[in-house]
Amino acid sequence: MGSKKVRIGIAGVGNCASSLVQGLSYYRDASGNEPIPGLMHADLGGYHVGDIEVVCAFDVAKGKVGRDVAEAIYNAPNNTFRFADVAATGIRVERGPTLDGIGKYLRDAIEEAEEPVANVSALLRESGADVLVSYLPVGSEEATRFYAECALEAGCAFVNCIPVFIASRPEWRRRFEQRGLPLVGDDIKSQVGATIVHRLLANLFRERGVRIDRTYQLNFGGNTDFLN
Questions:
Q1: Domains identified in the chain, total number
Q2: Domain for residue 206, yes or no?
Q3: Is 161 domain-assigned?
Q4: Which of 47, 45, 43 is nearest to 32 (CA)?
Q5: Residue 3 pLDDT > 70
Q6: How many CB atoms lie within 10 A of CB 162?
Q7: Which of 158, 180, 204, 210 has the most C-beta neighbours closer than 10 Å?
């Protein structure tokens, strides 16, 4: 681990955030000199997994807001497999704005917290966050734009992990470039999910001389993406 830390904020403490936070604990001492099950890179650009620390987090669920991040990641409706025991972080999950973050199918799964909405931009600045990682539920267009705006105001890089057009839009790219801030997105793939398997199979057919006229994939998932 280096002396320079990457301080991250998390918007949406759901299943993906649970995997991230657990992974930061599980792989903290991983060596980059040997294959690591479940991890592609222990060291990226001179930064090790152990250099990443969570400094703030935002959610809207009653069972998460006000809890330590280490506790909130295991609370319902999260159902990610528990593969690491995460020590208390001292970081409290703050109440973010709901906006369009809870679709009609999520209403039955999530009870909203009654706490007042936090000043996201101010908390990002006060925590010293370098990067804001957005794990909002799929379909959260207004909420994604809100958090992207907060990242700009706070001087944070923004990683958009859902399929809402931010990095894909020239106007957003231009604004982040003008501030000298990284903008990454849009959307991320599951480690070995339907998309990457489908893509590799399609390439395999092409390499073996088979012409594909049409192709589609069916997704079966267990997280809230599939409720939206």
A1: 1
A2: no
A3: yes
A4: 43
A5: no
A6: 23
A7: 158
In a domain, 30, yes or no: yes
pLDDT (mean) for 119-135 = 98
- pLDDT confidence bin for 228, thresholds 50/70/90: low
The answer to whether 49 touches 27, Cβ cutoff 8 Å, is yes
Any idea what the CATH number is for the domain that residue 17 is in? Answer: 3.40.50.720
CA pseudo-torsion sign 13, 18, 24, 25: positive
For residues 45 and 4, give the distance between their C-alpha atoms in angstroms, rounded to a whole number.
12
Each residue's pLDDT tens digit, 46-74: 999 999 999 999 999 999 999 999 999 99
- Identify whether 25 is part of a domain: yes
How far does the chain reach from its first CA to its final CA, in angstroms?
Answer: 39
Helices then strands (H, E): number in the chain? 6, 8
- Note down the domain range covering 90: 6-189
Query: Taking the CA of residue 175 as centre, how many other CA atoms within 13 Å lie in the half-sphere pointing to its CB?
Result: 17
Structure pTM?
Answer: 0.91
Distance CA 96, CA 91 (A): 15
pLDDT of residue 171: 98
Torsion angle of C-alpha atoms 184, 67, 100, 17, degrees rounded to 10:
30
**CA–CA separation, 44 vs 108, rounded Å?**
40
Helix (H, G, I), strand (E, B) or coil at 24: helix
* β partners of residue 9: 56, 132
